[in-house]
Amino acid sequence: MTSRFNIDPFVLRLLAAIALASLFPAHGVGVPIFGWATNLAIALLFFLHGARLSREAVVAGMSHWRLHLSILSVTFVVFPVLGLVLGLLAAPLLTPDLYTGVVFLCCLPGTVQSAIAFTSIARGNVPAAICSASASTLLGVFLTPLLVGLILAGAGSAAGGLSLDAIGKIMLQLLVPFVLGQAARPWIGGWAVRNKRALKVVDQGSILLVVYTAFSNAVTAGLWQHTPLSALASLAGLSAILLALVMAVALGMGRIFGFSAPDRITLLFCGSKKSLSSGIPIANILFAGHAVGAIVLPIMIFHQIQLFVCALIAGRYARRPEGPASRALNPSRT
């Protein structure tokens, strides 16, 4: 049923974690325990990301610098600009925390697994997708906090500003485990690739733990009492409009720069997607002390919308006649 309606099963698990936190939030001695468990889960998540990242695949796609710059500009320039404009227009319809979440969503790096998967299905430039998606994740560790701090500080938000403490925590919990994972790849890389199905459970389990902890704190602080249904409906509409505009810009850039069809597909899927797996851990660090549960709601809603829309578009691209360029750039089909 979930496959028929293009509902990501992981989204259902996220909703279950939110429901659990809403009914049975962590309290008392459970709060510090879940806090420490969340920190360890985030570190493990990024360690495994580093262990699985193939340097050979990244090197193979690095030569197409114009395409990579285009993707990164959509992710870290076009998205924040559109998000800022749309967010300001929709601000009267959103709560302050949801508005902060929209800004945060627009500053996040792109996805890795789903961007590559949709590029492959649509017969795009898979090596370039691997390179750009991986670079986006790494750059996001630095650029996301910087962009969020600049935009929110300029807007006068109480959540704005980028402290040295937040930078240190992001480096310690995200970048250091990622680098250690890369360093350990010669010894555990093969094992990580062979057991990617089992490790997916670890990945998703880490995110679910972070979501439960974040929403527990938010529910205790009165999340659902301060978030009307009209604001959630406005957020869903804003997410759909934002995705449509970004996709239109990505397609237009691909044509203006004269990219081939496989490269335009890569630009579309890598540039228009935002990472839930990176976003929730970064939010947990960056907005410590704020209503993290409400702030990550926009990325969770956008995540499901982008999966649904990209699945439809990738399927349409997949049905087009296959040329030699697509076969050469999509190893899974040769």
UniProtKB/TrEMBL annotation:
Keyword Phosphoprotein found: no
DNA-binding is among the record's keywords: no
Record field: transmembrane: 38-55, 67-92, 98-118, 130-154, 166-184, 205-225, 231-254, 275-295
An example Gene Ontology CC term for this record: plasma membrane
Domain of life according to the entry: Bacteria
Keywords: Membrane, Transmembrane, Transmembrane helix
The protein, known as: Bile acid:sodium symporter
